[in-house]
Amino acid sequence: MAVVTLLLPVARSALCNAVTSRGHVRGERERRAVNADIRLLLADAERAWSAGDAAGAREAFLEAGRCAAGYQLWRSAVRCYRRALEIDLTDRAPIARVVQMPPRAVVSQDWLDYARALDRRTWPAFGCRSAQIVTGDLVAQVECAGMGVVMELMMTDDDLVETRPEARLAGMPLAMAMILLRRALWFAPRELAADPMSIRVAFDGRPQVRLDELGDWEPVTAGSQLR
């Protein structure tokens, strides 16, 4: 198995620290520098993953999230941490970092539920970067490498997916389900899409949410059903 060496992660981390420590400076030049640093860390992570270095990819995703959070780019930080979770959906470190974010920046209840679900259950470690939908006679199933079937789903409307976890994953939290389902629905999502595709999801009997290609979700309201 080939292992990729991350390109100057220490140097880039130092750059991020230098930029974010100047909290009183909010100029566009500094913001672009931080965004560029995050993109480089994410590129390192993807290269590591492609080379079979899951641990290196995880560390680079976590570092990218820490860098974004240090500059209060909360949404970017959450997306970085979600990408780390795609490697191992039972990894507690990225969940703990999201939970520590300000309530205005993230729906903390979803992530608290995620942490508590892992405390209550002993699910095997598994990732979803290669999740795929397999169609059957009555329902479709989502499968993950090394784990097999993890979800059942049905397309009950043009823009609505109803889904529930496989029995051995009963109690799956919403955040875990959305991370998994996003990879199954968009195997190669456009990470920088300005107008991401989205779909309504009814998960395990809960109120509907709208999940988009970037991995963000929000409760469905009467107006949002028309999107």
Proportion in β-strands: 15-25%
Rg over C-alpha atoms, rounded to the nearest angstrom: 18 Å
Oligomer: single chain
Mean pLDDT: 86
* CATH homologous superfamily annotation of the largest domain: Tetratricopeptide repeat domain
For the biggest sheet, the summary is: 7 strands, mixed
CATH arch. level architecture of the largest domain? Alpha Horseshoe
- Tell me the helix content: 40-55%
CATH top level of the largest domain is Mainly Alpha
> How are helices and strands ordered from N to C?
HHHHHHEEEEHEEE
Concise synopsis of the structure shown:
The chain has helices at residues 9-20, 28-50, 54-70, 74-87, 92-99, 108-120, 174-185; strands at residues 132-135, 140-144, 148-157, 160-165, 198-203, 209-212, 217-219.
Describe what you observe in this structure.
The chain contains 7 helices and 7 strands. The radius of gyration is 18 Å and the shape is globular. It has a 7-stranded mixed beta sheet, covered by helices on one side. Helix 2 packs antiparallel against helix 3 (54-70), helix 3 runs antiparallel to helix 4 and helix 4 (74-87) packs antiparallel against helix 5. The model is unreliable at 1-15 and 18-27 (pLDDT under 50). The chain is an alpha+beta fold and 227 residues long. It has 2 domains: 9-120, Serine Threonine Protein Phosphatase 5, Tetratricopeptide repeat (Alpha Horseshoe); 132-226, no CATH class. 35% of the residues are buried.
